[in-house]
What does this fold into?
Amino acid sequence: MAHPEFGARVLDDAQIAHFVEHGFVRLDHAFSSALADEARAILWRDLGCDPSDPASWTKPVNRLGMYSDAPFVAAANTPRLHSAFDQLVGAGRWLPCRAMGTFPVRFPSPEDPGDAGWHVDVSFGFDDPDFMNWRVNLASKGRALLMLFLFSDVGEDDAPTRIRAGSHRDIARQLAPAGEAGLSLRDLAADGFASSAGRDEVLATGEAGTVYLCHPFLVHSAQPHRGMTPRFMAQPPLLPREPLRLDREDAAYSPVETAIRRAL
It folds into this structure.
């Protein structure tokens, strides 16, 4: 199923069950290596350093801005990905991704990158200048999925994102009493995400073209780069076309919604 038609079933029952239980599913060959190559060429151009000269890689992480160039949009909108979105979020319940978001390009370095703490990606309240006040609620307002797009090969030493498998359930239970207002990142981080500290840790490794489709409440973290080759990964949200609903009359719950309901 390397190139299914739109609407084809990409994820099998076991993968859907894994998403509900563990909060993520790995989709190999989600976009082509050729698109990854094109995108990396644009990113190297904007980095202002030499891909063949490690001496020019002077920072542990270099953040690049929003990207909506053709290779990025194409990578986010393959038939394979669209079909997976339908299966996880529900057909007609999500918006096509038109920008890849920022790129934290990670370079091999002994320095602490300074951004390797556990967190969840908040999804609303962005008008507050203090990002620690940005918020998330039980309906995951503003975000249908967290996505990790690998634009380079990522091995265990190449600063793969760390994932606490099943932590989306811990966050759902923490958010439930807060209602529509939800909790801020400061609220959630107050105890260092202790509720998920005992969860198994998974590394988001894979070849360029791999995408991890994650529940929006999944606890994850960056880490230092101990390998040899810079890591190119984007973390855009999949935006919802309509809010998540945990009380559907027709009981047509998506896996994202089902995971929350089971957690509660």
